[in-house]
Amino acid sequence: MAIADEFWKQIRTNLPVSTTRIAGENRYETAIKISQAGWKESAQSVILARGDDFPDALSGAPLAYDADSPILLTHSHKLDPNVKEEIFRLNPQVVYILGGDVAISPEVEQEIIDMDIKTHRFGGADRYETSALIGAYLPSSDTAVVANGTKFPDALAVASYAAENAYPIILTKQNEMPKASAKLLKNYPKSLAIGGTAVISEDLFNTLPDATRYGGADRYETASIIARELNPSYKAFVSTGLEFADALTGSVLAAKTESSFLLVHPEKMQDAVLQAKEDLGIYHFTILGGPKAVSPSIETELQGVK
């Protein structure tokens, strides 16, 4: 086995790095393209999240993976016709709605019900309660992921790994664990704290159960550390680290295809990303979003073209 591994290490350094891009005209269309790539025939269920704001969606990836469901995006008060068409194509038995009535209105839910599809809403009084409701719905595990709920990058950097392992993503504030989050966390003997002290303070970290921190100097390094240390693969999904939508909807497909996940700046390559590429020997990148999300120059650098 060791000989085979060594042989593969030698071979992979000579393999050309390839890229594919999954992209639509906007985040709603990109989510549809991701859904079509991963669920070609149908899906038992669909996760529906608000497309223009992140809080209620941050904990959705483990739920989506557990239910083998794509994540689609919606406007708060109206279901995009193309999204509605994709739900119709998938023919799910249930649509899981992330967030309360302010995030996704009862009118949107009624549109789904009118399609003769059941709905199940995870809607708490705030993002922390919503996160806890989602986490409580997941199968039991011994580990929880803890991430800052006021910022999206760290939760999304770990989303595909958490999803693949059925670990809930429990949201926190920098210095204080909200009540709903603290209550759910009591069920888990171990935890992973995502991000540095600017997002999870040392004092708060010290209160977490048997915690290990995975955090870099910025969002890109944090995602790179997670990929290298927790979720290594020769394949990786890549999305912009400046917006949440593509990382959210792509995280489930990354988990489904056993791929690592990296965040990039749209225009400027980060050393941490190249380090992860080298350390993991990544030979294929799936880029999420159009050229404004991840520029052609970044794609070229990922390919290693000079």
TrEMBL record:
As recorded in UniProt, coiled-coil segments are none
Q: What protein am I looking at?
A: Cell wall-binding repeat-containing protein
Q: Report the domain of life of the source organism.
A: Bacteria
Pfam family membership, one: CW_binding_2
Where are the membrane-spanning stretches? none
Q: Which InterPro entries match?
A: Bact_Sporulation_Assoc (IPR051922), Cell_wall-bd_2 (IPR007253)
